[in-house]
Amino acid sequence: MDVTADVAHGYLLPKGRRVAHAVIHLLPEASRAPMEVFDVPELQDFADLYLRTPVETLVEYQEGAWDNNLIIVSSLNIEPSFRGRNLSYTVMDSIRSVMGRAGSLVAINAAPVVRGTGPDADAAYARGRAALRAHWERYGFGHVGGGLMLTRNFTDTDEKHPSLHVW
Length: 167
What we know:
With about 170 residues, the protein is an alpha+beta fold. The chain has 6 helices and 5 strands; from the N terminus they run αβααβαβαββα.
C-alpha cells in the first residue's frame, strides 16, 4: 500500500524515497479463526496476546461493529529522517481508510522492533514500549494486555482520521 501522497502532505518526495513501511494482515472472523493462522512468524506475538485477552474486552471493543474481522498491523516503521512528526498517525489513518471496509477492529503490538543487547538493553526496551504505548493511546488505541492494543475502525465517521485531532 502506497500512502506517500497522504504522508507527504503535498510535498514531493524523490522517486524511490520511502516514508514508512507497514505489514498488515486481515483476519476474517477473528473469534472463530483457527490458531494456525497465527503460525506466520510476525503474528506469533499477536497469538499470545490475543489468547490472553479476556473475551469481555474483545466484545467491548466490537460493540457497534458490523463484523468480527481484525486488521493486524504487525509492524509500522517510519523512516528515521521522518520520525518525530507523528507521521505514524497519518499512516495509520491511511491503513484504516484503505483496509477499513474489511475489518472493524485494528490491532497493534506496541513494542520496539529490535531488542538490544548489553546491560541497559532491558531498560531501554521497557522505555521504548512505554513510549509506544503512550503514543498509540493518544491516537485512540486502548491497551488490552501485554503490548496488544486495539481500536475500533468506523470508517464512515469522523473517527476515521484521529490524526487530525491529536496533534
